[in-house]
Amino acid sequence: MNKFELTTESREVNGVTLYRIRALRDFGVVKAGDLGGFVEKEANLSQDGNAWVSDDARVLGNAWVYGNARVLGTAWVSDSAWVFGDACVSGNTRVSGDARVSGNAQVFGDAWVSGDARVSGDARVSNGALINASQDIFWVSNVGSENGTLTFYKTEKGISVTRGCFSGTIEEFAIAVEKKHGQSKIGREYALLIEFAGTRLGA
User: Fold this and answer.
1) Are 99 and 87 in contact (CB under 8 A)?
2) Strand order in the sheet with 88-89
3) Number of domains within the chain
4) Contact criterion met (CB below 8 Å) for 181 and 187
5) Are 91 and 32 found together in one domain?
6) Which of 11, 29, 161, 194 is most buried, by CB atoms within 10 Å?
């Protein structure tokens, strides 16, 4: 049995008609009868798994959301982009081109992911990110005292960082690391990663 259907509620976006979806059965945290976001056609969202489009999020073109992925808020997924695995795309995010967001990745805020960019693993991207290619993002897991994931990515204003509760520029992160960890082993590890990210993502 299909898990969702297109309703008659629609809206036009750039000349394309999108239809609000409705759940036909319970799956994941979704209950039968729940209204979701908007898709251009059924092929934009898998009928299998727990993947879901909710709120005023929009999926159009040849974009595909599947697995257990979620697209929330006012996010757009378009062109031939894929969002899958346990990934979550939310806020005012735009995912387009041939971009892929997968794994446990979270893309939120006003982030833009496009071109052939790949965001996966436990990467977390926000702060007006502009990721047009895979070279525009770098992340590493099992770092710091909590063995978490540290993500560096390009924005209009330079390089931004997310790590745990921290979200800010690479310069702000360097100051925070120095203040908290100084020249300890963890501090030195972070310093090396900051230097690497600056070289990799710098102009």
Assistant:
1) no
2) 52-53, 70-71, 88-89, 106-107, 124-125
3) 2
4) yes
5) yes
6) 161
Identify whether 127 is part of a domain. Answer: no
Nearest to 16 by CA among 97, 70, 78: 78
- Amino acid at the residue 56: D
pLDDT number for residue 197: 94
Looking at the structure, do residues 116 and 159 belong to the same domain, yes or no? no
Report the pLDDT value the prediction gives residue 129, as an integer from 0 to 100. Answer: 94
Any idea what DSSP says for residue 48? S
Tabulate helix, strand, coil % of the chain (nearest 5): 15, 40, 45
Nearest alpha-carbon partner for 73 in 51, 95, 58: 58
Percent of the chain with pLDDT over 90: 92
Question: For the residues 29-42, what does the mean pLDDT come to?
Answer: 97
Please check the confidence at residue 14 and state whether its pLDDT lies above 80.
Answer: yes
Is residue 98 in a domain? yes
User: What's the mean pLDDT when you consider all of the chain?
Assistant: 95
Tell me which amino acid residue 130 is. Answer: L
DSSP H or E run through 100: strand 100-101
Mean pLDDT of the 99-103 span: 98
Domain CATH for 26? 2.160.10.10
pLDDT at 81 over 80: yes
Q: Within this chain, do residues 15 and 114 fall inside the same structural domain, yes or no? A: yes
